[in-house]
Amino acid sequence: MRETDTIDMIHEDALPGHESALEPKPDWEPRYPGSGRLKDKVAVITGADSGIGRAVAALYAREGAHVPILYLCEHYDAAMTAEIVRSEGREALTIAGDLGDKAFCDRAIAEVVAKFGRIDVLVNNAGEQHPDQHITDITEEQLKRTFQTNIFGMFFLTQAAMPHLKQGAAIVNCTSVTMYQGSKELLDYSSTKGAITAFTRSLSENLVEKGIRVNAVAPGPIWTPLNPMGGARPEKLAHFGENTPMGRPGQPNEVAPSFLFLACEDASYMSGQVLHPNGGTIVNG
Question: So which residues are the catalytic ones?
Answer without folding.
Answer: 189
